[in-house]
Amino acid sequence: KVRTAILISGRGSNMVAIAQAAQATDYPAEIVGVISNRPDAKGLERAKALGLNTDIVDHKLYDNRKAFEQALHAQLLALDPEIICCAGFMRILTPWFVSQWHGRLINIHPSLLPKYKGLNTHQRAIEAGDTHAGVSVHWVTAELDGGEVIDQRSIEILPHDTADTLAERLLPVELALYPDALEAVALQFQKQPRQ
Ligand code: GAR
């Protein structure tokens, strides 16, 4: 199985969806650890309840982004993952960190990339008059939310949708997409590990 680490900052529902999928004997990835940059992330309890190894690298304890990322990098090296999934991980990663894990880092972003990189994606889709909103799993590169899309799914924006109702209706779509996208990436790794 392909060793996979998950980075979270909050609720952890995508992390749980991945971890539950990974419990199937024929799933190609195994979860070797969950790291949160927030000590109070709800997802940490959920990860422990699933029997997963958890760690905290609290960004507030470091003087700057580089120092935080070096600590995060060290924790990841200890887990020795082949793939790292950002799952609601809300820290921007520097080119240095991304280059350390090039071709191994993936993220889920709540928009139909390349549209709406960054924050407030659903509000921006509604304000633009878009007919659909969605969610994408993509490779992480030095450009924020700019790496190649691995897979994405969409739903229709309804007349009375708000950012909150869209997020609520998209959540089950996300939770189905991320395990499927990780499965596809892990199968590629099994065939041909990236260098
Ligand atoms: C998810 O909706 C995810 O798409 C989004 O944060 C939420 C995390 O929920 N990610 C981003 O906005 C990344 N910029 P979760 O912690 O319950 O998985």
Automatic annotation (TrEMBL):
Encoding gene (name): purN
Record-given protein name: Phosphoribosylglycinamide formyltransferase
Gene3D superfamilies: Formyl transferase, N-terminal domain (3.40.50.170)
EC nos: 2.1.2.2
Recorded metabolic or biological pathway in which this protein acts: Purine metabolism; IMP biosynthesis via de novo pathway; N(2)-formyl-N(1)-(5-phospho-D-ribosyl)glycinamide from N(1)-(5-phospho-D-ribosyl)glycinamide (10-formyl THF route): step 1/1
Physiological role: Catalyzes the transfer of a formyl group from 10-formyltetrahydrofolate to 5-phospho-ribosyl-glycinamide (GAR), producing 5-phospho-ribosyl-N-formylglycinamide (FGAR) and tetrahydrofolate.
Site feature: Raises pKa of active site His: 145
GO cellular component terms, semicolon-separated: cytosol
Organism phylogeny: Bacteria, Pseudomonadati, Pseudomonadota, Alphaproteobacteria, Maricaulales
